[in-house]
Design a protein that fits this description.
By secondary structure, this protein is of the alpha+beta class. The protein has 2 helices and 11 strands. The chain has a 3-stranded antiparallel sheet with strand order 3-4-5. Strands 6-7-8 form a 3-stranded antiparallel sheet. A 3-stranded antiparallel sheet has the order 9-10-11.
Length: about 180
C-alpha cells in the first residue's frame, strides 16, 4: 500500500510540475491593451493555461545535476541528459516510464513507475548495480554510491563505502 501511495504521489508531482512548469504563464504576459490573451485558442480554466498533451510531452518535470552532466525528467516519463558523457552517464535516451531521476558524479539513476531502478555511467564502485532492486519509492545518487528507499521503509545502497555511506541495511524507517 505504501508503494502504491508513493508511486501515485510521484506521478501526481510529475503531472503538477508539468502543468505548472510549462513555461507558459498567461498571467505574466505583458498587457498590451489587447483583451485577446495569447492562449485564447487553447483550453483555459479559472486557474490559467492548461497545456495540451503535446506541450506536456515536451515539458521538463524534474532535474538533477551531476558533476559535469545535467539530467531532465520529461513529463512523459522519458529522460534527457547533456554534458560530459565520458562514462555513459548521459546515455539515457532509451529510458521510459521514469518517475524520478538523480545524478551522481559520473552516473545517472532513474526510478521507474513499477518500482525498479535503472542506472547508466561509471560503475567503478558498483554504484550502477541496481538492476535487482524492486519496490523502490525514492532514489538518490551520491558521488560514487546510489541509495534507494523501499516501499516497506527499509533502505538499500550500493557503491563506494569508504566512509560507511552504504551501511544502511539496518535502517528501518517504518518505526
Amino acid at each position: 500500500m505504501k508503494r502504491l501511495f508513493a508511486i501515485i504521489l510521484a506521478a501526481v508531482l510529475v503531472l503538477c510540475l508539468a502543468a505548472c512548469g510549462s513555461g507558459s504563464n498567461p498571467s505574466s504576459d505583458k498587457d498590451d491593451g489587447d483583451d485577446k490573451d495569447s492562449h485564447d485558442d487553447e483550453d483555459e480554466s479559472a486557474d490559467g493555461y492548461i497545456p495540451s498533451d503535446e506541450d506536456i510531452s515536451d515539458t521538463v518535470a524534474a532535474i538533477a545535476a551531476g558533476d559535469y552532466h545535467t539530467v531532465g525528467l520529461m513529463a512523459d516519463g522519458t529522460v534527457v541528459a547533456i554534458g560530459n558523457n565520458y562514462s555513459g552517464e548521459c546515455d539515457v535516451s532509451g529510458w521510459s516510464d521514469i518517475i524520478a531521476v538523480s545524478a551522481g558524479e559520473s552516473h545517472t539513476v532513474g526510478l521507474r513507475s513499477d518500482g525498479t531502478v535503472v542506472a547508466k555511467g561509471t560503475n567503478k564502485y558498483d554504484q550502477c548495480d541496481v538492476s535487482d532492486w524492486e519496490n523502490i519509492v525514492a532514489i538518490s545518487a551520491g558521488k560514487y554510491h546510489t541509495v534507494g528507499l523501499c516501499a516497506d521503509g527499509t533502505v538499500v545502497a550500493t557503491g563506494h563505502n569508504g566512509y560507511n555511506q552504504c551501511d544502511v541495511n539496518s535502517w528501518d524507517l517504518t518505526q
